[in-house]
């Protein structure tokens, strides 16, 4: 069992030692009778008390250790206490559509007697408690959650796991021989299958912090310091790849890895982990900036975005901010379709701009997804751990925003209009039969949340946000292809967020600052100094997006004279000195080239 804030942070969880120190809790039984009656049962009667024992807490026993304070130090195994002793009649009911189990009866409970839907005092309203449940396919395992007990953190949640009496609940042995092989922006995690198991699966976890040796697998679920790299890897698979990303600029990052085996009936091994961390380069990716353009206006003019230093997400036939470009259908080249997408937010508003290159913009009759249109899939919550398989609302809502011609709207949940081009919130410069388009948009988080009654999102630096932009391309003869961001998106982002990519809010990944430069720079190539010069001159330049960079010098005939820079360069300001003592006087040109910026300047050598 464990309890956390419902957003990925665990406050407390059982550990392996509790099986011994809290044995009186782990032998409790919960009996669901076919006639609808329910019973709490507590094992054998003890000689000391003449009653069975269970786990008692301070609110039940008072200041049991006489230290003047009623707290967790008073918790211990002790004789069952009314009304939570199974002596009162109770019933149970299940709502399969809602996925809930409800108990009615004085003292009836599952897991911990204190926890109910409005508090943690063992006094539920009308003696009724409702739990959310998941039942395994073989019906031998029951997972429960309950929330609403913490007024300060409404999403806070207790999680319990139960097994059917008499079923196999012997956990598999721990995973051995975990090896991590670093690659280009990826760590390949390998292991050896647990001997003697059949039909088992494996889950791989990553953390910047060391894992506790032989800790229970439940301690990983909901832990904000832990990400699930891969789940349900089949036996004989033996490998999972961890794609390494970090906000803004490539940086070296250190990770520990753990693997957990789940046997064919759902029992989990203890956590087996690497003892030493693995250091590898993480890919710097654009983020949702917490500094929106001060002069933002939805008017089709991107100058405020270009001057802001905010890095755009890029996707096309030859470029993709997440790595390998991904095209669905047919898109000829970046001139046929490519997108630069800017995202920013403040406490109340999401801002977006898209610089769309499209050699033939078309919007007409028929299905909108067969026209030139932009989709932005986004989850407005801090997503750590496994990717969601299905769409959710409430405290972890998923949205699909669609931008087609002069209209924009929301899908997933309730479809709702978000504006018309020129209304101050949305602008699209696309003209049928003409190339390219600029799209600008803003929406209040509370207005978006109100459509489906979701929790209102507030961005916090370090959050990890699921997103997936998609551009639909139509060159006048119908849909031809899509440009997408995620390498796993097979034109099914609208069906499952498991195929989406992700980003971060601000310059942090959780609590880790990703870059040495707290202020993002812009691209620039400054005039050399001195100019004219003899024989040395200094050239200064700045990089806004880390990556491969070249700075070459050419003569007036365009012939290369020297390579001053030809390597990966990090974000920030740089300078280099050229000694031209071995070349003749004359006019020369120097040119910088990166994946998204190029510029040429002239200099004069006078000897």
From TrEMBL:
NCBIfam families: Por_Secre_tail (TIGR04183)
Domain named Carbohydrate-binding: residues: 324-500
GO molecular function, one term: carbohydrate binding
Pfam family, one: Por_Secre_tail
Gene Ontology biological-process entries: carbohydrate catabolic process
Organism: marine metagenome
InterPro entries attached to this UniProt entry: Carb-bd_dom_fam9 (IPR010502), Secre_tail (IPR026444)
Protein name as it appears in the record: Secretion system C-terminal sorting domain-containing protein
Residue ranges annotated for the Secretion system C-terminal sorting domain, each copy included: 529-604
């Amino acid at each position: 069992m464990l309890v956390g804030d419902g957003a990925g942070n665990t406050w407390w969880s059982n550990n392996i030692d509790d099986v011994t120190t809290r044995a009186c809790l782990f032998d409790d039984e919960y009996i669901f009778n076919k006639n609808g009656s329910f019973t709490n049962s507590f094992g054998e009667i003890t000689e000391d008390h003449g009653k069975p024992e269970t786990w008692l807490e301070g609110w039940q026993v008072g200041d049991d250790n006489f230290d003047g304070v009623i707290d967790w130090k008073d918790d211990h195994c002790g004789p069952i206490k009314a009304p939570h002793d199974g002596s009162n009649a109770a019933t149970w009911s299940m709502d399969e559509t809602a996925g809930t189990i409800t108990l009615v009866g004085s003292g009836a409970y599952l897991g911990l007697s204190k926890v109910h839907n409005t508090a943690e005092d063992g006094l539920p309203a009308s003696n009724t408690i409702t739990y959310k449940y998941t039942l395994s396919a073989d019906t031998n395992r029951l997972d429960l959650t309950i929330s609403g007990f913490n007024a300060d953190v409404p999403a806070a949640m207790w999680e319990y796991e139960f097994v059917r009496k008499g079923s196999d609940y012997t956990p598999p042995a721990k995973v051995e021989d975990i090896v991590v092989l670093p690659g280009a922006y990826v760590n390949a995690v390998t292991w050896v299958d647990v001997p003697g198991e059949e039909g088992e699966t494996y889950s791989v976890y990553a953390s910047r912090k060391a894992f506790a040796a032989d800790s229970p697998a439940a301690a990983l679920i909901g832990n904000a310091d832990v990400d699930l790299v891969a789940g349900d890897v089949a036996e004989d698979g033996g490998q999972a790849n961890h794609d390494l990303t970090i906000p803004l600029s490539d940086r070296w990052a250190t990770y520990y890895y753990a693997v957990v085996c789940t046997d064919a009936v759902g029992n989990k091994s203890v956590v087996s982990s690497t003892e030493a961390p693995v250091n590898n380069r993480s890919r710097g990716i654009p983020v949702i900036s917490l500094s929106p353009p001060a002069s933002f206006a939805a008017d089709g003019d991107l100058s405020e975005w270009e001057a802001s230093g905010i890095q755009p997400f890029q996707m096309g036939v030859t470029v993709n901010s997440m790595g390998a470009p991904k095209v669905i259908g047919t898109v000829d080249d970046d001139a046929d379709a490519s997108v630069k997408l800017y995202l920013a937010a403040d406490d109340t508003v999401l801002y977006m701009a898209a610089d769309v290159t499209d050699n033939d913009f078309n919007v007409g009759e028929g299905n909108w997804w067969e026209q030139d249109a932009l989709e932005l899939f986004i989850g407005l919550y801090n997503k750590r751990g496994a990717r969601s398989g299905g769409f959710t609302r409430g405290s972890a809502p998923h949205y699909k925003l669609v931008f087609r011609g002069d209209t924009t709207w929301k899908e997933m949940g309730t479809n709702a209009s978000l504006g018309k081009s020129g209304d101050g919130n949305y602008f699209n410069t696309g003209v049928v039969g003409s190339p390219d388009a600029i799209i600008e948009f803003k929406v209040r988080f509370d207005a978006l949340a109100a459509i489906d009654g979701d929790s209102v999102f507030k961005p916090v630096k370090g959050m990890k946000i699921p997103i997936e932009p998609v551009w639909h391309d139509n060159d006048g003869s119908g849909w031809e292809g899509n440009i997408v961001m995620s390498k796993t998106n097979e034109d099914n982002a609208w069906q499952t967020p498991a195929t989406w990519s992700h980003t971060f809010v601000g310059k942090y990944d959780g609590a880790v600052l990703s870059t040495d430069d707290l202020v993002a720079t812009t691209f620039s190539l400054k005039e050399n100094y001195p100019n004219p010069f003899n024989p040395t001159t200094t050239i200064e330049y700045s990089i806004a997006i880390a990556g491969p960079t070249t700075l070459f010098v050419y003569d007036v005939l365009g012939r290369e004279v020297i390579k001053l820079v030809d390597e990966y360069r990090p974000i920030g300001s740089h300078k280099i000195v050229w000694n031209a003592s071995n070349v003749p006087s004359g006019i020369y040109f120097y040119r910088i080239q990166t994946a998204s910026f190029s510029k040429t300047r002239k200099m004069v050598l006078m000897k």
